[in-house]
C-alpha cells in the first residue's frame, strides 16, 4: 500500500473536465477511499484539457457546482478549483507543483484511467510526476493496460464503469433518462445546466 509522508496516506487527485461528473467518477473515488489507498480524493476540475482543446465544455464554474452537488454528502471527497486561476491550457505537472508548494509535507497521488497510460510519456514533465506522485490507474472499458514499465503506477481493481460523459450529454439532448448514471444529488442541476 502506498503511504504518504509521515505514514499518512496520500490525497488522491482525480483530474478531469467532469462534463458532467457521473457515477463512474464517484465510484472510482469511493473505491480508493474504501480500500484506504487515499486519505481523501479531490476532484480537480480542469478548465481546459490540453488534449481536448476543441471539445465542448460547460463553463468551469458550472461544472464545479455540479461536482460540489454530487459529492456534498460523501465524506473524504472534495471539489478543487485550483486550476481556474492558473494559465490555460492546464498541465497536470504545473498543478501538482502548485499543490506541493501550497500544502508542504502533504503527499499527493494521481488518479488516471488506463486509456492514459500509453500516452503518459507525452505528458509535460512526466518523469517529474512519476518521481513525486504515486499513480493509481483505474480500468477503462475495452482498454487493456500494462503498467509494468512504470514503477510509479499501480493498477487498481476498481469496478468497471462503462459510462461516458459524452454519452450522457447526448442522452440529455435527446431527453432520455439519466437518473441511474449520475449522482442523484446533482441530477436536477445537471438537467438545468445541460438543457440550456
Structure report:
This protein is an alpha/beta fold. It is built from six helices and six strands, in the order E-H-E-H-E-H-E-H-E-E-H-H. Helix 4 (126-132) links the parallel strand 4 and strand 5 (135-138). Helix 2 (60-71) packs antiparallel against helix 6 (184-194). The radius of gyration is 16 Å and the shape is globular. The model is unreliable at 1-5 (pLDDT under 50).
Entry summary:
The chain has 196 residues and is α/β, with parallel strands linked by helices. The chain has helices at residues 23-34, 60-71, 92-102, 126-132, 165-174, 184-194; strands at residues 11-16, 40-45, 77-80, 108-113, 135-138, 153-155.
Q: How many distinct beta strands?
A: 6
Assigned CATH architecture: 3-Layer(aba) Sandwich
Per the principal axes of the C-alpha atoms, what is the gross shape?
Answer: globular
Q: What is the percent of helical residues? A: 25-40%
Number of domains: 1
Classified by CATH, the class is Alpha Beta
Order of helices and strands: EHEHEHEHEEHH
Structural class: alpha/beta
Number of helices: 6
C-alpha Rg (nearest Å)? 16 Å
Amount of beta strand? 5-15%
Question: Strand arrangement, largest sheet?
Answer: 3-2-1-4-5-6
- CATH fold name, please? Rossmann fold
CATH superfamily, please? HUPs
Q: Spans of 5+ residues with little confidence (pLDDT < 50)?
A: 1-5
- Biggest pleated sheet: 6 strands, parallel
Quote the distance from N terminus to C terminus: 45 Å
Output mean pLDDT.
89
